[in-house]
Amino acid sequence: MSTSIEIHKLTPSSDDHTNTIKTTYEHAETDRQIYEAAALNKWDDVCELFRERPELKTKPVNYLLETPLMIAVSNSCHEFVKQLLSNVETHDRDKWCGVNTIGNNALHHAARAGNIIDAKLMLQCLPDTMTTIKNIHGDMPATLAAKLGRKDMIDEVFSEYADAIEMAYEYAETDLQIYKAALRNKWDDVRELLEGRPELKRKPVNERLETPLMIAVGTNSSHEFVKQLLNNVQYQWFDDDEWSGMNIHGNNALHYAAKVGNIIDARLMGRRLSPTMQAVKNTDGDTPYLLAAKLGRKDMIGTLGTFTDNLGNLVVSTIQGGQIDFALYFIPRYTPDEKEPNALEALATKPEYFRSGNGLGFWDAYCWKKNSDRPETTYTYHQLQQIQEIERKNLPSQKIVLEICEMIEKNPKDAKKYFEPAIATAVKYGTVELIEECILAYPGLIWYEFDGYNLFHLAIKERQVQVYNIVYQMSGHKALAASELHGKENALHIAAKLAPPHRLSTITGAALQLQSELQWYKEVETFVEPEHVKAKNKDGKTPWMVFTHEHDALLKEGQQWMKDTATSCTVVAALIVTITFAAAITVPGGNKDDGKPVFLDEGAFILFMISNAFALFSSSTSLLMFLGILTSRYAEIDFLHALPKRLTIGLVSLFLSITGTMIAFGATLVLLLHDKVTWIAAPVVMMTSIPVGLYALLQFPLLVEIVWSTYGPSIFGKQSSRIIY
After folding, report:
1. Which of 500, 511, 508, 495 is nearest to 566 (CA)?
2. Over the stretch 270-313, which tens digit does the pLDDT of each residue have?
3. Residue ranges of the PGG domain (predicted)?
4. Going by C-beta distance under 8 Å and a sequence separation of 6 or more, which residues neighbour residue 638?
5. Which helix (H) or strand (E) holds 116?
6. Are 107 and 141 a contacting pair, CB within 8 Å?
7. CA of 232: how far to CAs of 195, 196, 228, 303, in Å?
8. d(Cα 246, Cα 209) in Å, to the nearest integer?
């Protein structure tokens, strides 16, 4: 036997459609206002609205179809409930008995929350029939209270429902027994119970409305329990709903299998249960197939069979789930359209799928770029694994972008609406390869505005240097890009504003963060027209005024960071100066009568004197550099070169002085003990290398970052030879 369902599509007139849209927007605004007021017990925020439109008192305000009464009762907002139920008209009382998506009315919500005050008030003002309404699991408010152990609620509100409550207590006992058995794969513990009362096989056993099948499937280990539970179950078209129950989030058992990657039970359910389970969407709009794609469960995707939902959703979900090669498989059937989920926008959030965001270190990335045909044997195992994974995702990503761009080139009427969100997202994430291909396919994109900013302004605002560097791949048109304005602000005003926190956090220390901001400002200053450097914005501020104001807090943090670093290092440098100076005067072994050192002819003594003198000079240099930092004026511009240079010299000198001190100490031990302990030299060398190594380990990364950011090649410049525009 089969059934067929006809779906009739209504095509309203333009005026009707416009009115519908207006009503939808209006409801969206009022729904949110009412929801917040009900949840926070703020009756005064909506009393005027309810007075003008009383029908909103009983209208659902969210996707779960919860009314203001349900929300207020759930949150024990007694004053809101009291005001809401005041002056309830007799002929309108039935309107208050509405139920949500799982059949619960406001009294069910009170039972769940243990809200005795509002439950009593509802029984006074609203129809008695509310107490007899059952939700989709067959629970009346009284039985729900019993299941949840709300003894006070039962005694004060539902005492007349003794028989139903007794049955609910019985269910509570069997639910726990079944719950534990499903979790622990103990079918034998509930075999007799479930065979004697088969309806319990499909009944929810906890507050999340999970059935025994969901719980067992979710463990990904209770396979025997699932097998026995579905034993002798054969799919019948009229039996669809019995095993297709959903939890409070709209997930069925197949969603659970998709989420945990339970292929064994997914195959069994596919054979035994209704195929309509695959089409069920949870509250996030995900079918089991889409959920598996989002989580990157490639084997599960193959197990779930044919995809029948919107193909755009699948492509986007597989991209989000990291199955980029699987997404490429569906691209030929994908139609880039503003009404479809935007695959390019999803790909724009994954810069790691492209070479620019590959995550390789500087040397590895350089070798990969220069030696793409380099033999695999020259890489370490870790490097090889990392590069192979990058190439696995990089190549399909490029193909997806190229294929979608080719599709849009053939039908460019919707290009702007499709490309705009993708480009804006790509700029924020720094996915420069995607931007380049889109501009090559549709050159006009380079002048489009995204949230009021053109491409380069947005790159400056988001501090995405690779996207900004596209300007160096332009022909003479880059002069036009320099003259573009954002309202009354030019590009330098935008560069003068503080970078987004997530971009600043990639740089170590407030001082280097301020240096980076100054580098951006100086770069854009050379890029804009000369008259823009002193131009004023709508607030009457020049770009440098904006920079000073925006970076005031960062400047103070940079000053403190520099002072703290310099103070700590000054103490160490001063201590080394004192020690080495004293050691130069009181040499090991003392002096002869003629004033010459006792060990003057020993090689170790010459090493001691040289290393000690070296340590003294280095520590003195370091001390002077750190004192120079402490006495600096700390102007913004000082953080560009002057202060980082002093800090670099100070840290290097301090490192050399520590090294010299350790060598001098080791030479002294050898001088004093070599006659008694002949093997002392080797252990001394090893021990003196420990503090030197620790200093290098702790301070070297910071030193490298300072040197690289101050003296290294500029981050701005041409990054590819091809002309984009």
Report:
1. 511
2. 888 888 888 888 888 888 888 888 887 877 877 776 666 667 77
3. 560-670
4. 632
5. helix 116-125
6. yes
7. 12, 15, 9, 22
8. 7
The pLDDT of residue 626 is 92
Burial 509-527 (b: 16+ CB within 10 A, else e): bbbbbbbbbbbbbebbbeb
Which tokens go with 445?
A: 């994109």
For the domain 558-711, what is the CATH code?
A: 1.20.120
Would you state the pLDDT for residue 707?
87
Write down the H helix ranges in 157-244: 162-184, 191-196, 212-219, 223-229, 240-243
Give Cβ neighbours of residue 267 (< 8 Å, ≥ 6 apart).
Answer: 303
Given the structure tokens 């959903």, which residue do they identify?
246
Cβ atoms within 10 Å, residue 124: 9
- In the chain, DSSP finds a helix count (H) and a strand count (E) of 35, 0
CATH number of 21-159: 1.25.40.20
Q: Are 107 and 130 in contact (CB under 8 A)?
A: yes
| Cα dihedral 394→395→396→402 (10° resolution) | 110
Would you tell me how many other CB atoms lie within 10 Å of the CB of residue 361? 10
d(CA 87, CA 125): 9
Residue 653's identity, in one-letter code, is S
Close Cβ partners of 162 (under 8 Å, ≥ 6 residues apart) = none
Sign of the dihedral through C-alpha 14, 19, 24, 26: positive
- Domain extent listing, the chain: 21-159, 169-309, 558-711
Give CA–CA dist 4/6, Å, rounded. 7
Residue type, 472: Y
Q: In this predicted model, what pLDDT tens digit does every residue of 81-139 receive, in sequence order? A: 999 888 787 667 788 888 888 888 999 898 888 898 988 888 888 888 888 888 876 77
Distance CA 257, CA 267 (A): 10
Nearest to 321 by CA among 330, 417, 334: 330
- Name the amino acid, one letter, at 211: T
* 21-159 and 169-309: identical CATH topology: yes
Q: 324 and 294 in contact (C-beta within 8 Å)?
A: no
Question: Which residue, among 207, 257, 198, has the nearest Cα to 229 in the 3D structure?
Answer: 198
Distance separating alpha carbons of residues 482 and 456, to the nearest angstrom: 9
Helices 509-527, 681-711: inter-axial angle, 10-degree rounding: 30
- Residues of the chain predicted below pLDDT 50: 1-25, 168-169, 237-240, 361-379, 381
In the structure encoding, which two tokens stand for residue 512, read together?
A: 């280097």
Distance CA 614, CA 65 (A): 79
Q: Please choose, from the candidates 107, 206, 196, the residue with its C-alpha nearest in 3D space to the C-alpha of residue 157.
A: 107
Residue among 323, 330, 336 at smallest CA distance from 309: 330
Q: How far apart are CA 530 and CA 33, in angstroms?
A: 50
Say which DSSP state 528 is in.
S
Report which of 227, 224, 229, 280 is spatially closest to residue 256, judged by C-alpha positions: 280
Per-residue burial over 310-323, b if 16 or more Cβ lie within 10 Å, else e, is: ebbbbbbbbbbbbb
Instruction: Report the CATH fold assignment for 169-309.
Output: 1.25.40
